[in-house]
Amino acid sequence: MDLWNHLSHLFEKDDGSLPDIFVENISEQEQEKIYSWIMSISKPYGNPIVWSNKENRDIQIADIESPVRQFVDGNIESFRFELEGLKIEGILIPQLTICVNLNEVEFDYRMGKEWGQKELKALFVFLSEIKQIAENAKILQADEGRYENPNNEFTEAFETYYAEYIS
């Protein structure tokens, strides 16, 4: 499948928005595994902070052992930060942010000239690896703020790609 031919319009022109990719229908354990895997191949950009419900103050995510577990247990709020150095098969994936919500991991991306055929394929490999961790996960894409209206074209392209990826 020529991903770029089918989906370039979702990536190539920076219109200032930050479209979302949702990984849903995952267990807390899968969420922890996904987050740990992502942190093993990238790192947070800068020193992101999160609100600690337990300490009633902001703390650096880097200082938290198992941030996903702390979130699930209610000790910290949901958190979001930009990923730095995320490479798949040697290809740097353009700016992605990760957000951890209940039973979901969300990614935002900036559209623009940094995206091309290789970067889109790397993103699909990245998402396929996540689906290997959480086989029942649903992976959806939507325009910023349009969660209730996911892009079927993206979903169908990913499902087709994933079926080929695992075969």
TrEMBL record:
Protein name per the record: Uncharacterized protein
Organism of derivation: hydrothermal vent metagenome
